[in-house]
Design goal:
Length: 402
């Protein structure tokens, strides 16, 4: 089924993630799989490495509880990926894992990687499994929101007046560009010096499809789209800017601007509220979305969605595997819990259930519970499991107060 985008109906609850005051409270939905009747969805769980199993466990419990309250049943199948798969079967993405993922309605990924596999050859690195997974699923559009919640504005390293009210979305092209371009590899010069080389390459269809997702996303937010490139020096970026500019005529209600990536990196820190929706290529999006995440104070709070033209979407927190705290109940699972909200909204079209999760997270923060990465004086420091339990208590309370 082709991806579609549409506006949402009236929210079930009034407590939702903040929208910019100058914009109508709209959301963007991209359909990834067909709605089933009765409501039963098969979810592939890929816990992965490090803190991945801990945060996925919490998110699964929250998803199951919210589903029960909304008349939705979930079937879960857990599969290995990354370092866990390497240890189990010797490859970072087993064929069976990809097959099960493709047959599901949505995929929830924890985290991959760790010191243990850092010296592996490239084809045996956990990260290679992630790239293979994205390519195998055909998920070309990565949506990464960066919202500074009022409860956590003081956690940002930026001045309050700069961070307060930030609400932006980075739309990153995910399956093209320098990470996948050919030729690539190692060679030697005429003088015998070793060189490594990669190719930044984009075809017209790759640019057009991600640009359309970005324009549709911007249309349902504040109607502002900034395309980030390096068109002053890179031919691939020159084509990028040309194609995005041409598509703008199909969206007269969206204000399109262009910005060089080095300036965009500076502007994200100087004046992040100038941005609403950003669209950019794979490598620039990788860097800028991580930079944007730190505007919020912690990478442990931010979810993401990876979507394609058909088949299931892939949903994951943007943080890494954090092997230094794995197994210590110190991880922040809220990014994974919020990834489940994106899974419901973008992958399954279950908007009310998504809002329930977001409302429960905000309620938990309002009640003062914090993991170590977002802790501040006067708040209650809790671990991974406990904050997950508090989110579930908030879910139950929200339904009790309906």
């Amino acid at each position: 089924m082709m991806s579609t985008l549409h506006a949402n109906s009236t929210p079930l609850m009034t407590t939702t993630f903040p929208s910019k005051s100058v914009c109508p409270p709209k959301r963007t939905l991209i359909r990834c799989s067909a709605t089933k009747t009765p409501k039963h969805y098969n979810i592939t769980l890929l816990p992965g490495d490090g803190i991945g199993p801990e945060v996925v466990s919490v998110a699964k419990n929250v998803l199951s509880l919210v589903g029960s309250r909304h008349g939705i049943e979930f079937g879960f199948q857990e599969m290995p990926v990354g370092g866990a798969a390497l240890d189990l079967v010797g490859v970072p993405l087993p064929d069976e894992t990809l097959s099960v993922a493709k047959q599901s309605d949505a995929i929830l990924l924890g985290a991959i990687g760790g010191y243990k596999w850092d010296k592996n050859e490239k084809h045996l690195k956990p990260e290679t499994g992630l790239l293979q997974l994205r390519a195998g699923l055909g998920v070309f559009a990565n949506l990464r929101p960066a919202t500074v919640l009022p409860q956590l504005v003081d956690s940002s390293t930026l001045k309050k007046e700069v961070a307060e009210g930030v609400d932006l979305m980075v739309v990153r092209e995910l399956t093209g560009g320098i990470y996948f371009g050919q030729p690539r590899g190692f060679s030697t010069t005429e003088k015998g010096e070793e060189i490594g080389f990669n190719t930044e390459v984009y075809a017209t269809y790759e640019i057009d499809r991600i640009a359309r997702v970005a324009f549709e996303t911007a249309r349902k937010r504040c109607g502002k789209l900034c395309s980030v490139d390096k068109a002053n020096v890179l031919e691939a970026s020159m084509l990028w800017r040309k194609r995005v500019t041409l598509m703008a005529s199909d969206y007269p209600d969206v204000e399109l601007t262009h910005m060089y990536v080095d300036n965009a990196a500076m502007q994200l820190i100087r004046d992040p509220k100038q941005f609403d929706t950003i669209v950019t290529n794979n490598i620039f999006g990788d860097i800028l979305s991580d930079e944007a995440s730190m505007l919020t104070g912690s990478i442990g709070m931010l979810p993401s969605a990876c979507l394609g033209e058909s088949g299931p979407g892939l949903f994951e927190p943007i943080h890494g595997s954090a092997p230094d705290i794995a197994g210590q109940d110190k991880a922040n699972p809220l990014a994974t819990v919020l990834s489940v909200a994106m899974l419901l909204r973008y992958g399954l079209q279950e908007e009310y259930a998504a809002i329930t999760i977001e409302s429960a997270v905000l309620d938990t923060l309002n009640n003062g519970f914090r993991t170590g990465d977002i802790f501040s004086s006067g708040k209650k420091l809790v671990g991974c499991k406990e904050i997950g339990e508090e989110v579930m208590k908030s879910v139950i309370k929200l339904f009790r107060n309906r």
